[in-house]
């Protein structure tokens, strides 16, 4: 089953990633209460499978919240998903592209930036086109 496995919000720039059980996605804005609002990067999403590849490449466990994404999903491959619509529970996200791993990842854990480069392991960013409250365990699918 494809599902949401984690949700995080960042209250302020460079602030900690707060784990959430549910969150409201606001169309045209982003995750309610998250510091980044509007624009094309309203939400960032990573896949659990890709994160497991990152951990394997590093040879050590690294908590996925260090990636600083808003949502972690299971069961949907995000590689080459630009332009697709992703259903997260009742909400819909238009994926605009790959999140390129930045220097912050290397500062957080040596080797992390390089481990995230292949196969869109850094996840994707997008715009909320249909809002709604998402919860851990909600179904995830690619809308055709």
Whole-angstrom Rg: 14 Å
Q: Bin the strand percentage.
A: 35-45%
Which of globular, elongated, flat, extended, rod-shaped describes the shape? globular
Widest beta sheet: strand line-up: 2-1-6-5-9-8-7-11
Number of domains: 1
**Low-pLDDT windows of residues:** none
| SSE arrangement, N to C | EEEEEHEEEHHEEE
The CATH architecture category equals: Beta Barrel
**How many β-strands, per DSSP?**
11
Under CATH, the homologous superfamily reads PK beta-barrel domain-like
Q: Count of DSSP helices? A: 3
- Give average pLDDT, whole number: 95
Kindly report how far apart the N and C termini lie.
18 Å
CATH topology: M1 Pyruvate Kinase, Domain 3
Describe, in plain words, how this protein is organized in 3D.
- This protein is 15% helix and 38% strand.
- The chain has 144 residues and is α+β, with helices and mostly antiparallel strands.
- It has a single domain, classed as M1 Pyruvate Kinase, Domain 3.
- The chain has an eight-stranded mixed β-sheet. Strands 4-3-10 form a three-stranded antiparallel β-sheet, with no helix packed on it.
- Helix 1 links the parallel strand 5 and strand 6.
- The longest helix has 11 residues.
- The mean pLDDT is 95.
């Amino acid at each position: 089953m494809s599902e949401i496995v984690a949700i995080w919000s960042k209250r302020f720039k460079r602030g900690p990633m707060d784990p959430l059980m549910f969150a409201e996605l606001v169309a045209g804005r982003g995750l309610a209460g998250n510091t980044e609002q509007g624009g094309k990067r309203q939400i960032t999403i990573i896949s659990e499978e890709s994160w497991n590849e990152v951990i394997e490449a590093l040879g050590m466990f690294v908590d996925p919240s260090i990636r600083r994404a808003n949502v972690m999903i299971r069961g949907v491959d995000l590689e080459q998903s630009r332009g697709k619509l992703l259903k997260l529970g009742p909400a819909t996200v238009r994926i605009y592209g790959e999140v390129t791993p930045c220097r912050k990842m290397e500062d957080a854990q040596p080797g992390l930036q390089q481990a995230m480069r292949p196969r869109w392991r850094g996840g994707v960013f997008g715009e909320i086109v249909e809002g709604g409250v998402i919860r851990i365990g909600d179904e995830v699918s690619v809308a055709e």
